[in-house]
User: What shape does this take?
Amino acid sequence: MAKIMVLHGPNLNLLGTREPDIYGTDTLATINDSLLAQINASGNEVVCYQSNAEHELIDQIHVAKRDQVSYIIINPGAFTHTSIALRDAFLSVSIPFVEVHLSNVFSREEFRKHSCLSDIATGCVTGLGALGYNLAAEFVLSQLS
Ligand code: DQA
Assistant: This one.
């Protein structure tokens, strides 16, 4: 049984009511429940964590190393575009990860087109809404089996 960690960055706790025309109407709880069902059904373990604080997300990446997590799925929110510290955390632990965005970051403001993480991620899913998390999980499970 492998361990998978799902990390959600700032403001994603507000999903459901936050700019639903951009991010959809699914709540974070719905997304996590769906991932839990999908990953548990495959016989693997998943832990989901959301924080609005950069250092708490970094701490979780360190925890992932300690707990021998095999893969991370992360929607870093706005930290995607700014956080060299998150990038360094992933480089420090050498845990493979998939970057997920609900919205298509390439069809929005210029500043959203740059990611501090994409080039060190295994891959990215962007613009497919909440389903993007499940597609990322399907990929991760295929890598672990
Ligand atoms: C986001 C896109 C980011 O640009 C934004 O700051 C978010 C959400 C997405 O899921 O589409 O908070 O990561």
